[in-house]
Specification:
With 714 residues, the chain is of the alpha+beta class. The chain is built from 12 helices and 42 strands. This is Interleukin-31 receptor subunit alpha.
Length: 714
């Protein structure tokens, strides 16, 4: 075994040498340059590269200098002499030494790379269907004597799938053409092209894309559907037709218009026609069954006839769909249904956004030999609710539809429900909220959550399903402020509505009604008992409610002081001596009558005394035609009697009067010349309330004689 010994100094020195250039690759850009690249592409330290080229046919050498700062590549711009073979070797050098790569050989035709061709037209050929002709110019730097291999790539505009075709052309002509066949009629295509020099391993880049359209054909097919309106116009029912190209047929033509004719089922003589370019024309039909026929046409011909039966307005449609549900796959919405009629094998599917505003145009598609329907999710808008209806179709009859709602993607509602409170009570309140508008729901509302919180209190919540739009809160605190709001939730989350405040009552209407009822009921019972008592004992009730007020004219005479007064006062003599003509007091036949006649107003009397001459006062009292006296409740009163006095002398009659009061009154009321002196009657006592309240004045008859006459008679 042989071995090589290396000193440590040599190992340390070799560790700092540059890396050996490897993976050398060279490209011959025809008539431009010859470029070589190698690895490593980057170096930590500065390295100088020298590329040595040897031309085998010319036996010449030259070099190309580069550094690690410019990258691991170097180009030769001169002495490009195809055909030839180049010998390439790369040297890497730094401060510690030089490292050389392996020697490589390069045939210029095998590494030649040219520019892409330039397409200048993609057009159909007159009279040839399903074909376009592609024309382009040769690359400017392509070798004139070489052969070029081409790859033409194409696709329909609405497709992402590319198809390719390969062919060969010589570089004799500056312009070249290729007929691309097997295409669909009236379809727009995108075309691009690349080429490579024969035997070369480097293709050119792709040319710029160019578009072209194939010639059209006569219409292939037509799908026909309808929307039945419930309202009538001038007694006719409007029917909107929906027209579009038949499912599965390519768009091979440009439709110029539609021919429509329709008639009642039992009378073809009433056929009417219409020519329109509108894909949603509207017809006005009668109440009977109608048949509608439609064809589309263009400059090359017309489509097969499409037929649709419109049932009579009173015709009952059959129903066979029992259930339907939707599910979401990775990128599709799938609708599946169950049918009770196995003979029905054709269906019409409608879908339209469910919005608050006017509905958008209806989308529709026919399905056959299956009981499911799929649609790409990107064909539907996220956060939009779609109404999907499936109609069974048996021959020419259309059955009753089955409808369902679906979202391809749900989100949080854009805003929460608006809330209000009603029926605020002492411990209860009704919370009401409005549904969120359809365009703001962004998904199915699964439930509502009612949050309420007392001022500086704990927060409570109640959750109800989406069909409930009001809730009664109970067990609240009397006379307390509350904050309430409602949250609407979908499968993606929820959002709170605006907050509102309310305050419970301190007393309820029921309590007010109860108290009022009790008080009113008690009063009613009292009235009833009182009426019953009055009916049973009317006199006693009358006495309690309306007590008898004594009539002074009918009252009995007060009790006199002195037992001999009655003996001294002879009523019959008083009656004989006093008469109406002499102005003497009217005779009384009983003491009661006399007392009633002698009632006078002491207050009024004092007022008269204080303002008039005393002599005139007594003259008015005793000699006037009208004299009155009313008892004062706080003052004593005196009774002056003009009557025939017995010889026994004057008597003073006082009742309940202080001893010093009567003389003072006598001094104030009667002047010395005209007073009675001790010979008058005086009475003082407690005022009679009945006399005070019932009688203010009493008129009594006095003698027309002067006090002097009375004194003389006495």
């Amino acid at each position: 075994n042989s071995w090589t010994w290396r000193s440590p100094a040599f190992s340390w020195f070799s560790a700092y040498l540059p890396a050996k250039p490897e993976n050398i690759s060279c490209v011959f850009y025809y008539t431009k340059n010859f470029t070589c690249t190698w690895s490593p592409e980057e170096e930590a330290n500065f390295i100088s590269y020298t590329v040595r080229r040897t031309l085998c046919y010319l036996r010449e050498n030259d070099t190309c200098i580069s550094t690690s700062e410019n990258g691991s590549s170097c180009s030769f711009y001169s002495r490009l002499t195809p055909p030839d073979i180049y010998i390439i070797q790369v040297e890497a050098q730094n401060a510690y030494g030089i490292i050389k790569s392996d020697i490589t050989y390069w045939d210029l035709y095998t590494v030649a790379k040219i520019e892409p061709p330039k397409i200048f037209s993609v057009k159909p050929v007159l009279g040839l269907k399903q074909m376009v002709q592609v024309k382009w110019t040769q690359p400017v730097l392509a070798p004139k004597s070489s052969t070029l291999n081409y790859t033409l790539r194409f696709r329909a505009v609405n497709s992402t799938h590319w198809m390719e075709v390969n062919f060969t052309r010589s570089c004799v002509n500056e312009e070249e053409a290729y007929n691309l066949t097997g295409l669909q009629a009236f379809t727009e295509y995108v075309v691009t092209l690349q080429c490579v020099v024969n035997k070369s391993r480097f293709w050119s880049g792709w040319s710029q894309e160019k578009r072209g359209i194939t010639v059209e054909e006569a219409p292939h097919g037509l799908d026909l559907w309808r929307v039945l309106r419930s309202d009538k116009v001038d007694g006719k029912r409007p029917v909107q037709l929906l027209l579009k190209k038949a499912k599965g047929t390519p768009v091979l033509e440009k439709v110029l218009g539609y021919n429509i004719w329709y008639f009642p089922e039992n009378n073809t003589n009433l056929t009417k026609t219409m020519n329109t370019t509108n894909q949603q024309p509207e017809l006005y039909l009668g109440n009977q069954t109608y048949w509608i026929h439609v064809i589309s046409y263009n400059s090359l011909g017309k489509s097969p006839e499409a037929t649709l039966r419109i049932p009579a307005i009173d015709e009952k449609s059959f129903q066979c769909i029992e259930a339907m549900h939707t599910c979401l796959t990775q990128d599709q919405l799938v609708v599946e249904w169950q049918s009770s009629a196995p003979e029905v094998d054709a269906w019409m599917v409608e879908w339209v956004p469910d919005l608050d505003s006017k509905p958008l145009a209806i989308s529709w598609e026919s399905v056959s030999h299956t009981r499911n329907w799929t649609i790409q999710q990107d064909e539907l808008k996220p956060f939009w609710c779609y109404n999907i209806s499936v109609y069974p179709m048996l021959q020419n009859r259309v059955g009753e539809p089955y409808s369902i709602q679906a979202y391809v993607k749900e989100g949080v509602p854009s805003e929460g429900p608006k809330t209000k409170v009603e029926n605020i009570g002492v411990r209860t309140v009704t919370i009401m909220w409005k549904e969120i508008p359809k365009h703001q729901r962004n998904g199915f509302i699964n439930n509502y959550t009612i949050f309420y919180q007392a001022e500086d209190g704990k927060e409570f919540s109640k959750t109800v399903n989406s069909s409930i739009l009001q809730y009664d809160l109970e067990s609240l605190t009397r006379k307390t402020s509350y904050t309430v709001w409602v949250k609407a939730s979908t499968s993606a989350g929820g959002v709170d509505g605006p907050r509102i405040n309310f305050k419970t009552l301190s007393i309820s209407v029921f309590e007010i009604f109860l108290v009022t009822s009790l008080v009113g009921g008690g009063l009613l019972i009292l009235i009833i008992l009182t009426v019953a008592y009055g009916i049973k004992k009317p006199n006693k009730l009358k006495h309690l409610c309306w007590p008898d007020v004594p009539n002074p004219a009918e009252s009995s005479i007060a009790t006199w002081c002195g037992d001999d007064f009655k003996g001294k006062l002879n009523l019959k003599e008083f009656d004989d001596s006093v008469n109406r003509e002499d102005g003497i007091l009217k005779p009384c036949y009983s003491p009661n009558d006399l007392i009633d006649k002698l009632v006078v107003n002491f207050e009024s009397f004092l007022e008269v005394v204080s303002t008039e001459d005393p002599g005139k006062v007594w003259e008015n009292i005793l000699g006037g035609e009208k004299n009155e006296y009313v008892a004062s409740p706080n003052r004593p009163y005196c009774l002056a009697v003009s009557a025939e006095i017995p010889p026994g002398g004057p008597q003073c009659l006082c009742s309940g009067m202080l001893e010093g009061t009567c003389p003072e009154a006598r001094e104030q009321l009667l002047p010395p010349a005209q007073g009675f002196g001790p010979d008058h009657l005086c009475e003082e006592g407690a005022p009679n309330p009945y006399l005070k309240n019932s009688v203010t004045t009493r008129e009594f008859l006095m003698s027309e004689k002067r006090p002097e006459q009375i004194h003389r008679e006495v």
